[in-house]
Design goal:
Number of helices: 2
Strand content: 25-35%
Structural class: alpha+beta
Length: 129
């Protein structure tokens, strides 16, 4: 039974890494484009009994106007409407524009690799009993 749980955990970690790497492959293989975007509104959702908000950014890139929603939700409506924010997107893919957060994504990848390593070590009998 323990082996099945370890294998399921490994499959989940590897699948998560694959999904993230697939999303970031375009970002890593194309030159980044820096754009100035304006906060035009917010998308909201309920999170643990309270409202969370994600800003909606509007910007012009590659001869057209685009609108993207931030992937990270927060409690207050931040930044305020009308604020100009720097976004980056891979050349040719303005729909992938986002606020640069390299340390956050490095931490996510690091956590998944660490968890995969711990599950592998447990499965191989290198840790625990």
């Amino acid at each position: 039974m323990e082996l099945y749980l370890l294998l399921a955990g490994q499959a989940l970690c590897l699948f998560s890494l694959w999904v993230l790497a697939r999303r970031d492959f375009v970002r890593l293989t194309r030159p980044p484009v820096r754009v100035e975007a304006e906060v035009t509104g917010y998308r909201s959702t309920w999170n643990e009994g309270s409202r969370s908000y994600a800003p909606v950014y509007r910007f012009t890139s590659e001869g057209a106007e685009h609108e993207v929603v931030e992937a990270v939700y927060s409690g207050p409506e931040y930044p305020p409407r009308g604020t100009m924010v720097v976004l980056r997107h891979p050349a040719g893919c303005p729909e992938l524009a986002q606020v640069p957060r390299p340390l956050m994504w490095l931490a996510v990848y690091g956590l998944l690799v660490f968890l995969e390593g711990m599950l592998l070590a447990k499965m191989m009998g290198w840790i625990g009993s």
